[in-house]
Amino acid sequence: MTPVSNVVILVDDDETILHGLKLVLETEGYRVVAHSSAEDMLADLASYPRACVLADLRLPGMDGLALQREMQRRDANHPIIFMTGFGDIETAVDAMRHGAVDYIKKPVSTPALLERIEQALAQEAIAHEGNTNREELAQRLARVSKREMEVYDRVVDGMTNRGIATELKISERTVEVHRAQVMQKMQASTLAELIKMHVLLNS
Description:
- The protein is of the alpha/beta class.
- The chain is built from ten helices and five strands.
- A five-stranded parallel β-sheet has the order 2-1-3-4-5, with helices on both faces.
């Protein structure tokens, strides 16, 4: 198995957040490279072929989504975790559909952040070896019923339970039950994880 990298590239224009996260991650043993803009990060990217990127969605100049697109154009396969404010959730979900591995809401919870980074770096190690678990995910998805699939399709599109209930003409409680069944059958513990599975299945 390819060793897991311990490099985290931070991108945030808020110096207080940048330095605070850098201190937290270095205390946990990560090698941290901090940048206050996407442009500066891209100029330095080639120095770190194996790393996880933790970036704010709202950046001056080139924003998080533009950064993601540019990394894809350069064939830089670093896993990206976006930090997002409450109003950016739909944008974060869209970013995940285009390859981001996760998002985390601000203010950032340290335990949640460390867990996401550890998972992203582990996935990077697996991807580095060229492994894939599409076949296993497809087998899980095959166990999802027709009605559950209707809910699944709308959940990964970013719809709320209320919106799904209205569109399918069922109660919100019924949506919650189907959604829970989908999460269980797909073995996804969070919405972000379910979206990652969806992206992998359709990539």
